[in-house]
Each structure stands twice: as structure tokens, then as C-alpha cells.
Amino acid sequence: MKRHKKLKKPHADFPLFPHASGQWAKKVLGHLHYFGTDPDAALNKWLAEKDELLAGHRPRDHGEGLKLMDLCNKFLTSKKNKLAAGELASRTWGDYFRICETILDFFGKDRRVLSLGPDDFERFRAKLAASYGVVTIASAVLRARVVFKWGFDNEHIDRPVRFGTAFDRPSRKVMRRAKREGGSRVFEADEIRRLIDAAHPRLKAMILIGINCGFGQSDLANLPLDAIDLAGAVINFPRPKTEIVRRCPLWKETCDAISDTLADRPRPQDPADRHLAFLTRGGVKWVREYRKGDVIYFGDYI
Description:
Elements lengths: L16 E2 L5 E5 L2 E4 L4 H16 L13 H17 L5 H18 L10 H14 L2 H20 L18 H10 L7 H10 L2 H13 L3 H6 L5 E2 L4 E3 L10 E3 L2 H12 L39
Antiparallel strand pairs: 1-2, 2-3, 4-5, 5-6
Helix pairs in contact: 2-3, 2-5, 3-5, 7-8, 8-10
């Protein structure tokens, strides 16, 4: 076995001790850390990493490398281009924006991407678990992985980020339990009738289309006028996300409710919304879009 020359401390208050491996070392929070063989370089490295080590964090890469803020801005710019081309839903872009904000709030804007490791992501997931339910955690983990994978796939970082085994989505068992504990979301027929009887004509039409065609809130908010054929009693409206064709025959009461609400349709505030069947009383879209002015930009996006 190779024996290393015994190191001597440059002065009595030198914070590191000579390890048998020939390197200067220090034990922090039960873990041994090494700082090289040169005492001056080792001291500088210790001083640079001391605060993070004492806080229980993985030391940052203080050398060259892409910062998290730059990765997020590059990622959001790419997704914004897809949004402008009609290849990405505004709601999805908003979800990506929020996960980038969450990542930067937790790790810091200047953190180097490749300095992140499994222990960092384990702490990040624990933070998510302390603040959100399992459905939100599942979405956040998935979207965070998308951001970092995009960085590697587009050659902004030269190796994949290691998430570790702890940074995973909740299991199907946990998801099923949360759904069961959350209670049933099914509306019974008598409940729907009471909603229709109490609803404003505009909302009545939306409720009837929802149960008649199986449309959700995003479908209703984006339903164009030209998709509605009252003469033929049908709605032809493909799924916005997948473009899968949907042709929905309408009940007579649904047609009557649509006719009533279109006769009193508010004037759209935004010319871009003039094709929509349903607008709020103030003439704006029901589901808010991420348009210019909806977010505060720092630098590029964040």
C-alpha cells in the first residue's frame, strides 16, 4: 500500500486536518469532505464551500457552467415559440412557467445546473410534499424533469442531470388513496337539475353542453362559434390538445339554451376572442390565457 507523506498544518488555527489519503479534509455534519493536497487551494475551497456544507447542502459548482436561470429562460423561450405556432396550449406554457419559478425559488437563480444532484432533488421533492397534494406533486415532478431533460437534449448541458431514486412521482397506490379520500366528484341527476334551474342562461348553456358532450371547462372556454350547428343539432369540435375529431349530437334543451345565450352574447373586449361562443359578462375569455402582460419578467422571463 502506498504511504502518503504526513502533512503538517501551516499554522495552528488551520481549519482542515491532514487525512491519511494525503489530502486536507474536514468532517461536517457527520460526513468527511476532501479539499486536495495543496494547503492554500484547500483552504480557498473550504472557504468557498463552507456555508453550503454547514447548511447541509451539496456544494455548488463555482466554475463555469450554465445557471438555472439561463436554463429556464432558454426552455421557456423554446416553449413560447411553440405557443406562438399553435403547437402548445397556453395553459401548458403557464404550467411550465410556474415550475420554472418553483425551481428557481428553491435552488436559487445563480445555482449551476450540473451542481445539482440526488440529495438536492430529494430535498426539493420534500418541499413539494410539504406544500401540495399528491396530484400537484406528480405534475411538478414530471414538468421539472422535462425542463432538465430539455437542457441536455438541446446541448445546453453536456450530461444528464442525476435526479436519484427519491425524485419520483407518487405511486399509483398513493394516487388512488388520495382520490378515494377526496370523495366522489360525481354529480347526480337531481343535483345537475338544481344547478341548471339556478343558473344564468349563459352558464345554463355551458352546463348542458358539458353533460351533453362531455366537455370540460377548457373545451367550453375555447369553443368557437363555427363549431356549433344549431340547424343540424350538432357540435363539431376536435380536442384542442390532440385534434381528435368529436361530433356531438345535441339535445333539444341544449340547442334552446345555446340559442338563448348567443342572442345575448357580450361584445368581446379582445378582437382575438370574437370567434368564441362563450364570454364572461365583461366580454373576456372564461379561462385566462398567458398573454403579454400576464407575467412579470426578470431578464428574459425569470
